[in-house]
């Protein structure tokens, strides 16, 4: 069974003006598709072709890990945005954010700062992760993610590879991250992921 890119949960132009159709066409339509194609090529004719992408990611290393983890990371990212995103979460997620970071505003400031100026130097992902009754912010380089490394349950992520934002924001990574937080992050999906 060959893998395919997971369909977007919105139209390809639905995130405009916050994320352009051009960005999604390249990022989801080309970058992600390359990772999917690479995984299909690597697992064809092996026992791994009957596993899920997550199972392949958790058991692999090297190029197969990089490609399968990037598929998983990108799906998680794209599924975690909404044309009606941004704002604040509610319920249990908001309570855990306030308990872990002091306030939603303090969390948002730290979550954005993790991607610019750092610790995210270079390419990778910034994550909001659940560990027991606490939430924490993690940065992973390249294709790494908290699920593969066993460092917690991912709740939200944003991509800090340049292809995620360069068409819309050029070198202004902080502006892209602020836009993600204010207009794109889907707190309903994040709450579902928290459980």
Account of the 3D structure:
By secondary structure, the chain is mainly alpha-helical. It has nine helices and three strands. The protein starts with 20 loop residues before the first helix and ends with a helix. The model has no long low-confidence stretch (mean pLDDT 94).
Largest sheet: 3 strands, antiparallel
Count of DSSP E strands?
3
Strand percentage, roughly? 5-15%
Q: By helix and strand content, what is the structural category?
A: mainly alpha
Low-confidence stretches: none
Q: What is the molecular shape?
A: globular
Helix fraction, binned, reads: 40-55%
* Tally of helical runs: 9
Written as H for each helix and E for each strand, in order along the chain, the element string is HHHHHEEHEHHH
Strand order of the largest sheet: 2-1-3
Mean pLDDT: 94
Beginning-to-end CA distance, first to last residue: 30 Å
Radius of gyration: 16 Å
What tags apply to this protein structure?
3 strands; 51% helix; mainly alpha; globular; 12% strand; three-stranded antiparallel beta sheet
TL;DR?
Helices cover 51% and strands 12% of the residues.
Give the helix/strand layout.
Elements: H1 21-43, H2 53-59, H3 62-79, H4 91-101, H5 104-115, E1 124-131, E2 134-141, H6 146-149, E3 153-159, H7 166-169, H8 173-184, H9 187-194
Antiparallel strand pairs: 1-2, 1-3
Helix pairs in contact: 1-3, 2-3, 5-8
């Amino acid at each position: 069974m060959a893998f395919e890119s997971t369909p977007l949960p919105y139209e390809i132009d639905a995130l405009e003006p916050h994320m352009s159709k051009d960005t999604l066409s390249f990022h989801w339509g080309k970058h992600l598709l390359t990772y999917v194609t690479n995984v299909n090529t690597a697992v064809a004719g092996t026992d791994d072709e009957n596993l899920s992408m997550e199972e392949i990611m958790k058991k692999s290393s090297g190029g197969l890990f990089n490609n399968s983890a990037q598929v998983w990371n990108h799906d998680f990212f794209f599924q975690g945005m909404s044309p009606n995103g941004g704002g604040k979460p509610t319920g249990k997620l908001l309570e855990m954010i306030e308990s872990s970071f002091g306030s939603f505003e303090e969390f948002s400031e730290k979550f954005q700062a993790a991607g610019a100026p750092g610790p995210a130097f270079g390419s990778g992902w910034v994550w909001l992760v659940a560990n027991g009754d606490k939430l924490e912010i993690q940065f992973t380089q390249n294709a790494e993610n908290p699920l593969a490394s066993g460092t917690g349950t991912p709740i939200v992520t944003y991509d800090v590879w340049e292809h995620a934002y360069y068409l819309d924001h050029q070198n202004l990574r902080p502006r892209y991250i602020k836009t993600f937080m204010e207009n794109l992050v889907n707190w309903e999906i994040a709450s579902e992921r928290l459980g």
